[in-house]
Write a structure and sequence with these properties.
This protein is an alpha/beta fold. The chain folds into two domains: 3-175, 3-Layer(aba) Sandwich (Rossmann fold), CATH 3.40.50.620; 188-267, Pantoate--beta-alanine Ligase, Chain: A,domain 2. 39% of the residues lie in helices and 20% in strands. It has eleven helices and nine strands. It has helices at 8-17, 33-45, 63-68, 73-81, 97-100, 119-122, 126-141, 153-165, 195-208, 215-225, 258-263; strands at residues 3-5, 22-27, 48-53, 90-93, 145-149, 171-175, 228-235, 238-245, 248-255. The strands form two sheets. The chain has a six-stranded parallel β-sheet, sandwiched between helices. The chain has a three-stranded antiparallel β-sheet with strand order 7-8-9. The protein is globular, with a radius of gyration of 19 Å. The N and C termini lie far apart (45 Å). Bound molecules: adenosine monophosphate. The site of adenosine monophosphate has 17 residues, from helix 2 and strand 5.
Length: 271
Amino acid sequence: MPHTVSTPQSWRSLHKRISGTLGFVPTMGNLHAGHLDLVRRALDENDHVLVSIFVNPTQFNQQSDFDAYARTFEEDCAKLDALQDAEKRLYVFAPQEKHIYPDGYAVKVLEAEDSEVLEGKFRPGHFTGMLTVVLKLLNIADATRAYFGEKDFQQLLLVRKMAESLFLPVEIVPCPTRREEDGLAMSSRNARLSAEEREKAALLYARLSDFSRSDAQVMKTLEKDGFKPEYVETRWRRRLAAAWLGNVRLIDNIPAESGAQKEGKKHAVVS
Ligand code: AMP
């Protein structure tokens, strides 16, 4: 099993004993193939890799969602162990809430522009919780590079913005979204879909990819399909969406140009 540490101090003293570059992959655990892509890439590009597993309470909007979030530490470690090579270059940081929030969440990171729209509009406070924990984790990890999925595109954009504006000495590396065969973006929350919902869920990606329809038309189509869409919007040269299916909230995004290029159509990209 990968070497696991649980306090910032224990990681720091271990970090001092290893040399070379460090890749860092922050996660909330319940690892799937999308997470493992990030870890593999980090192993390819660095001498050592640290994966953090921490279900961050401050970025959840509902206590019920936080409580329902699957905690599968043993399985996660087994999946990471399978990626280990002979040199054992992979480490796990699995802190508790008290280690990360010694101040009780009195100090926060606020981005007051791009965090207000899309996810931020529907999940008030989510990005402040996310940025705060990511800054703490980046400071603890002290890595050369940190890996984030495009699946959470607005998160990636905000983390990059924070790293630039606060002069963080780390390279933020974006990684493509890993999808199921039918196109559904992999997510820890997909397991909560019923069999019927799971089948329908693939339509989110299919509708998003239909550039013959406007964002507003895609919203309407998703409603007819049985989703409760919160937004479908083109921004940052991406087309992004969030929609509820039963009790599960799904998000996805794709490059805004892809469909237009494929079909040779002119397509307005709103930035
Ligand atoms: P999470 O555990 O959901 O906080 O995700 C940890 C990291 O994995 C984040 O950078 C996510 O964007 C990334 N991630 C989650 N799902 C996927 C996916 N399907 N493909 C690629 N990266 C992903």
